[in-house]
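Re: that chain you flagged

S.,

Sorry for the slow reply, it's been a week of failed gels. I finally had a moment to sit down with the sequence you sent. For the record, here it is as I used it:
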Amino acid sequence: MDRTAGTAGTHDDEVLPLSVGQEGLWLLHELAPDSSTYHLAGGGRMEPAPDPELLARAVLALTERHPMLRSVYLETPAGPRRMVREPGTIGALTVRQVPDADDEELRRLVAEETARPFRLSTEGPFRAVLLLREGDAVLLVTTHHIATDATSQWLIWRDLLDAYEALAYGKEPGWDPVGSGYEEFVAAEQALLDSPRGTRQAEYWREQRTGSEPAELPTDRPRPAHSAGTGASLVRRLPDQLSERVRRTAADQGVSQFALALGALQALVNRWTGQTDFLIACPASVRRSAARNVVGYFVNPVLIRGRLDRGTTLGEAMAAANERIRQSTARVTYPYPLVAQAAPATGPLYRISMTMVTTDRFGPGLGGAVSGEAIDVGGISTTYLEIPHLEGQCDLAVEVTRDVYGLTLALRYDTELFERDTAERLFDQFERFIAAAADRPGTRIGRIPLTDEAERRALLELSGSAGSGTRGSGTRGSGTQGLAS
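Prediction finished late last night. Pasting the structure tokens below so you have them in one place:
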């Protein structure tokens, strides 16, 4: 099969308009061109090391297939635009010989490469780097969010590994056709904005934000006037039994697993802040079936309004979240930047986000790799490496990944605002709330303990040693409000 047969219908050096979301990301890039806040990254440890020449051919085939990966971005009199470059001119594989690097040095090199700025106007939004040691290697793929989303990252890995395996056995990649191009999505978005349906969606989002406020956790340090966009990540895989209980309870309650987790997060926010009407953003996919194999930016944050108090049960919280998600999904195509632009200038509409990524659509091979399983790629044992990315976009971002076996949680937090100990404690409590939602959905939010038994004993001992059994009321902004309740 001709490896270019499935590419989308764009022409080299064709100048194309951006989606509204891409325009927003372009503006952010122009304001902070050296920031890595909007970088997506993933890696694969390959043992033995792959053939660099074959891998370079696989990368070339990948960029031929996906024009978005060989596009550059530029300003024109009509506004920012995307230009598709000829295959091989940008985005080629870079090989770095690091024969004596130990694992610690390898992690440092990966972090360095992930943070390296993109020059979108000349180099494009895609980098593939092979860090080559004596007996193995790490393949690092980094993209800018302007060109990709979470699903696109997995499409890139699927197609890249398929191409390498085919070439290793003397064949061409047997990919399915890509289907429609990203430019069709941009045209559909513009048609929506020019239609009465777009006007109705704009009114819906105005109603959602009116009278509510962003969910805002108490912080360890004062909020700076201008965020540096710096962050860190914590990643945990839920125990298999808990993942299964989440699946069963969600089915029994008639809600999605994401709604269960979102209801648990909303409940935790209420306990930390006392807020009873607040907004959390949920980056949602606007990818349609015709674009299921297209690499592009198909993400739109939607605002999910939470209205709950300590008397609300977890079952009620997840049911309300499920309904809000359903309503929002019906209006997901209205671009969030326009929602924010139409809002009064009182600050961001959200400071906390939560999203779900599903990789089970890729089957037990790549889907299993997400959970840490080694897969064979052309005779090479390949293990996927989770690499921190998209850090510092907001105060707190939670990502739930569902693979063929269960659920993994990633918590990304702004390091200007939170200490790692606070983030760890918050993560512990979030997992506890998810377990409570899965096991006891009839529990009222105010009855869920924020501490485990060991923490309660330690707090009681500390209280006793201090000679007082009272508990401080705490103030918002202290970073400790309600942690022992």
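What I noticed first: Residues 1-6, 466-485 have pLDDT under 50 and may be disordered.

Talk soon,
D.
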